[in-house]
Amino acid sequence: MSDPIDDRSHASRPVPPAYPAPTALNDDPPPSAQAESAAPGIVADARPRERDWARIVRKIASGVAALFLFVLALQLMKTGATEVAPTLRDSPLFSNGASTLGAGWLGAYLVLSGSPIAAVSLGLFAGGAITELQTFTMLSGSRLGASFIVLLVGFLYSVRHRGANREESVGMGILALTLTAMVYLPGMALGYWVLRSGPLDSIRWRTSGDVTSVIDFVWGPAQDLFTTNLPGWLLLPVGLGIILVSFKLLDRVLPQVSGNRVAGRRGEWMRRPWPMFLLGCAVATLTLSVSVALTVLVPLASRGYVNREESIPYIMGANITTLADTLVAAMLLRNAVAVQIVLAEAIGVAFVSIVYLALLYGPIKRSVIRFDDWLVASNRRLWLFVASLFVLPVVLLTSGIWIGPFTS
Predict the structure, then answer these.
(1) By the 8 A CB rule, do 147 and 180 touch?
(2) What single string gives the DSSP state of each residue in 302-332?
(3) What is the pLDDT along the chain (408 residues), one digit of tens a residue?
(4) Sign, CA torsion 307/310/316/318
(5) 354, 186 in Cβ contact below 8 A?
(6) Roughly what angle, to the nearest 10 degrees, separates helices 31-90 and 115-126?
(7) Would you say 74 and 119 are in contact if contact means Cβ atoms under 8 Å apart?
(8) Which residues contact residue 96 at a Cβ distance below 8 angstroms, ignoring those fewer than 6 apart?
(9) DSSP designation for 154
(10) From residue 404, how far is each of 105, 185, 329 by CA, in Å?
(11) Scanning 87, 100, 235, 259, which has the fewest C-beta atoms within 10 Å of its C-beta?
């Protein structure tokens, strides 16, 4: 005899649809059931495909727009530099190599990126506004300013994430700045010697005549629109603004480096210097931005996926290949010496980095980490260090006032 409670519970359950029982010859559900189960799947599959195609179209459009604006900005800055060349040559703020080092350093602060300022330095050189030495120093200053962004991101990250390890997040920014200065300052001197000694004189990399004709045909009308309606002195800042927009669009096209993605692939090789060096070279080449390549280290270091010692070779590698977009800019300007300047800078920085890693890695690692820990341990020392990062480039920028001009 069945329990009445059981009878009531069975009676209250919904009765399933009365589909015919499957037979041995046909185990498929009836057509109506197939349609009901298939329809949601079709919609679910179609929407991701539509989103994928829309994303691809947006990336292509952003890439085309970024290329157009990048080349246009270079042409405008070159023309604008020609117009302001006499004024800049007479200005104490652009009178020697130290002043242009400060200009590149502070300029990267203002635009929060080093690549646009590096392109400006090449445009000024192509327009005859600055010398080879000043181009070298302004290019190096833009790299120093770009590494400051890592310190800024590390500070903001530690403020936003209260549980974050400040020694690692803020310390990563200090480490990036310290290593960039240790590599780029001697690398700049070595590269300038390479340029002046003549082994790169035979290198004449530039866009071909056909490419130049295409540039004149495609970009000529837009360039004429600006040059005929704006005063010559305004073309340089307008070109800088346009190139910032082009880099913003380029960010939508280039691969995005995720800290979690890199952390998920962590292995024993991340503890070895040379693989990390090559990884830094690869990431900076893919992203065309040393700021992006180094900023990804902040969350990784804060969460303990990578420590500062392991990131030293990575930072050195990223500081070399970040010059790739600057080399392209020099070729588009069709200035052989500008190309030689970028190559000489890359050779100098690469040589210094390899010597550090091959012969001095242990002492350098211990010294920079010790200096890093010493700064982070005291708020007073940290703030004095940050203040010096603004005072020093200002002193360099104004050096022409109290030192006067000097040339190579």
Answers:
(1) yes
(2) HTTSS-HHHHHHHHHHHHHHTTHHHHHHHHH
(3) 444 444 444 444 444 444 444 444 344 445 444 444 444 544 455 566 767 788 888 888 888 888 888 888 888 888 888 888 787 777 888 889 999 999 999 999 988 888 889 999 999 998 888 999 999 999 999 999 988 888 888 887 776 666 556 677 788 889 999 999 999 999 999 999 999 998 998 887 766 556 667 777 788 889 889 988 888 888 888 988 898 888 788 767 665 555 555 555 555 566 788 988 998 898 888 877 777 778 777 777 766 677 888 899 999 999 999 898 899 889 888 888 999 999 999 999 999 999 999 999 999 999 999 999 999 888 899 999 999 999 999 999 999 888 767 655
(4) negative
(5) no
(6) 40
(7) yes
(8) 134, 399, 400, 403, 404, 405, 406, 407
(9) H
(10) 20, 22, 31
(11) 87
Say whether pTM exceeds 0.90: no
Give the other-Cβ count within 10 Å of 327's Cβ: 19
Single-letter code of the amino acid located at 236: L
